[in-house]
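Ticket #4471: structure export looks truncated?
Reporter: QA, pipeline team
Priority: medium

Steps to reproduce: submit the single chain below to the structure queue and open the exported record.
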Amino acid sequence: MKIGDYEFLEDRLYDKEHVWYKMEGETLRVGVSDFFQKMANEIVFVELPASGRVLEIGKPFASIESGKWVGRVKCAVEGAVIGANGELKDFPYLLNDSPYDEGWLIDIKPAGADFASDLFDLNDPAGLSAFEGFLESERQRIADLTK
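Actual output as written to the record:
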């Protein structure tokens, strides 16, 4: 689904950090959205957590560096890391080229079944409307910063 200039896949949930979550069995695959990668520009470095690390809501779990930005990626789901995308160490540009497929970040085992309550579901009309409003406010915030 296209929202403005950005592509979002409807089989994922999204948070306010521009991170997506896709349920695969009992595991969540986690990555960054098209909006994230376009705002970051060319990504040149990615540092991911080791398997077994327990993630806390609102706490950073990854570090990403682009030509214009260095930042930490925060998680909106509590759980344990069960795998990381090792390809990103040598090929960080996969986040730009394929943010929803080859550029995934980590797999986690969520701590509880209610993890989705604070995430945007684009298949739900209310969730989609809220997400569109959130993206508009983000675009405006970024436009104000670049003035």
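Status: closed, not a bug. The export was complete when the record was re-opened. Leaving a note from the reviewer for reference: Residues 2-145 form a domain with the OB fold (Dihydrolipoamide Acetyltransferase, E2P) fold (CATH 2.40.50.100).
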